[in-house]
Specification:
By secondary structure, the protein is of the alpha+beta class. The protein has a single domain, classed as 2-Layer Sandwich (Beta Polymerase, domain 2), CATH 3.30.460. The chain has seven helices and seven strands, in the order H-H-E-H-E-H-H-E-E-E-E-E-H-H. Strands 1, 2, 3, 4, 5, 6 and 7 form a seven-stranded mixed β-sheet that branches. It is globular. The protein starts with a helix and ends in a 5-residue tail after the last helix.
Length: about 200
């Protein structure tokens, strides 16, 4: 049987796997937009006599799991969780919180052609070059001082309990058990599904 592993690996490295250079571009866009949000939030607080403060930010999705694949349209999805302390948000509802995030971002996005988009599950920042960053909003709390881990709630239609690390932790454990070949299979599946969007 003919061994085509060399050709396959060349195809994988040339057309599927994202280069370190492109990964660095995505990281740079992520970091710049987190900074934009923090700066915008400071301005929002000054104008509205509020004191909202980001407690933590977490990279999520394919960027966190290192499964982003090449995309001719540069339509890369960067997922970032933005977390507030629950008592910092007070009675602010999930939609009001997303609106506040969008409002804060607008103060730092004068050069963008599109304003931040408030969606049901996130606030989206879109680049004309195709990239977009989805800020998913969470709040965290501890029910007692002895509690080691935070409880997280996600700002969807309503505030709902969500394990912010569950998917990433599961995937890391699967990689440890099945080796990095699992990540390769995920990348290939995503690339071929993206190549044939109208196929069943």
């Amino acid at each position: 049987m003919y061994d085509c592993s060399k050709e396959f690996n060349k195809f994988y490295n040339d057309h599927v796997r994202l280069s370190e250079k492109e990964k660095n571009v995505l990281r740079d866009k992520r970091d710049k937009n987190i900074k934009r949000l923090k700066n915008g939030l400071e301005k929002y607080n000054n104008e509205n006599n509020t004191s909202y403060k980001i407690a933590e930010s977490r990279t999520q999705g394919s960027m966190a799991m290192h499964t982003i694949v090449q995309n001719d349209r540069k339509d890369y999805d960067i997922d970032v969780a933005i977390v507030f302390e629950s008592d910092n948000l007070g009675i602010l509802g999930p939609l009001a919180t997303r609106n506040m995030i969008a409002n804060a971002l607008k103060r730092e996005m004068h050069q963008f052609s599109e304003e931040p988009e408030v969606k049901t599950g996130c606030v989206r920042v879109r680049y004309t070059t195709g990239y977009h960053i989805d800020f998913a909003i969470f709040k965290r709390s501890k029910y007692s001082e002895s509690q080691d881990e935070y409880d997280y709630e996600y700002a969807g239609d309503i505030w709902s309990a969500r394990d912010i690390k569950a998917l990433d932790d599961w995937f890391i454990d699967e990689i440890k058990a099945k080796t990095d070949n699992l990540r390769k299979i995920v990348r290939l599946s995503k690339m071929f599904c993206g190549s044939f969007p109208n196929s069943v």
